[in-house]
Amino acid sequence: MPQRSWHRPDLCQGARGERLIRARRYSPTPNRSSFQLLEQRSNLLRSPVFTLTALEIPIIAAPMAGGASTPNLACAVSEAGGLGFLAGGYKTPEALAEQIVDVQQRTDHAFGVNLFIPQPPLTDRAAVETYRDALGREYSAATFGEIADADDDWFAEKVAVVIEHRVPVLSFTFGLPPRDAAERMHTAGSFLIATVTSVAEALQAVDRGVDALCVQGPESGGHRATFTTSDEPGTLALGELLIAIREVVTLPLIAAGGIHSGGQIASLLANGAAAVQLGTAFLRTDESGANPAHQSALLDPRFTETVITRAFSGRPARGLSNAFITAHDASAPHEYPQVHHLTKGLRADAARRGDPHGLALWAGTGFREASTGPAAAVLLGLWIDARAAVSS
Ligand SMILES: Cc1cc2nc3c(=O)[nH]c(=O)nc-3n(C[C@H](O)[C@H](O)[C@H](O)COP(=O)(O)O)c2cc1C
């Protein structure tokens, strides 16, 4: 297996050294701690293994399954000094491998891949059938496939893909990777990030031996990462959740959820986050693959708020409140991914018609601030504002 050049300290140091100088220039009045941070980072650049402190800009473009994350977006963010991500969820292992190779051919910078942890088998088939029948009466032209007892999203095959391609950073949602898989991914040189939504989940993740935690607050767009589908996600705001987890965990923490400004980024970094992860902020960028109707809805005055719903997938997820959620939120069964598969055809049909009321318009609470333009400009703009907030 040829080694990727990001593993090679010589190349890595050269390219990263230049970029550090550039990042330094963005700070209007760099203070002592920002120089110490840069110093720490440049020391760590000699290490062959990825670390969060080696990022020039501690901003991660969140993995966003369903089309929003693209190789273009991952490359743009990683090349600009942040950490770009590919979303492994819902893709076939072959499609994921293609995207990984695409990114590796275009950048020597580290990037991440996110995988969905398999869920236990269906427990309440009758509830899913009742939901299907209700949807069938409303959407008479719709056809629904078989309701599978289980669907592991090809987890084992995708683990084999990321190991084969030596992906620098791997993150997980909806649970923790099994111990043996985590060990194999570690042996392949990957940096492992578990997404957690509570102190209890954080402690379990530490026990599993991951390298960092992504602390996902209730403001987050898309699915909550709770370890079980039945759990109602916590409501402790991101800042408080970060501090609560910081008190019991020494691993590096990544803060995620509703982040849309430099001031928020500066405050989360000051409160113990090693990096921040933003999804919604990148949804309208040039490199985003989000459906155009989804992108437009973020600015559409008809969509005024986000809500957490199980209507589209059976799992709690935050999105813009629309007609589908209003009609079906109360009756959606707590079964994932069966409900996700059930509504897939309806969502695809809404996408074809450009109807935002039938789409899962996943978005965090900061949705109105999502900017257009190149992802690199969005990333650098946020970082400049964060640096300015520190020194003001
Ligand atoms: C459209 C969309 C899709 C998402 N898909 C995933 C995913 O596949 N895996 C994952 O771990 N998180 C996913 N998330 C959640 C993000 O990782 C992150 O927690 C969230 O975007 C942070 O909140 P923000 O959107 O307010 O920035 C998704 C978020 C959005 C908005």
The low-confidence runs, each spanning 5 or more residues with pLDDT under 50, are: 1-48
The CATH class of the largest domain: Alpha Beta
- The name of the CATH superfamily of the largest domain reads Aldolase class I
Q: Main β-sheet, in a few words?
A: 8 strands, parallel
Question: Which ligands does the model contain, each kind named once?
Answer: flavin mononucleotide
- What is the third-level CATH name, the topology of the largest domain? TIM Barrel
Order of helices and strands: HHEHEHEHHEHEHEEHEHEHEEHHH
Oligomeric state of this protein: single chain
Number of structural domains: 2
Q: What is the 3D form?
A: globular
Question: What would your notes on this structure say?
Answer:
The structure is a single chain. The chain is an alpha/beta fold and 392 residues long. The protein has two domains: 55-118 and 153-285 and 372-391, Aldolase class I (TIM Barrel, Alpha-Beta Barrel); 120-151 and 299-362, no CATH class. The chain is 41% helix and 12% strand. It has 14 helices and eleven strands. The protein has an eight-stranded parallel sheet. Helix 3 packs parallel to helix 4 (93-106) and helix 4 runs parallel beside helix 6 (155-164). The N and C termini lie far apart (48 Å). The model is unreliable at 1-48 (pLDDT under 50). The protein binds flavin mononucleotide (FMN). Flavin mononucleotide (FMN) binds at residues 62-66, 68, 87, 89, 114, 173, 195, 216, 219-222, 256-259, 277-281, 362-364, 366. The site of flavin mononucleotide has 29 residues, from strand 9.
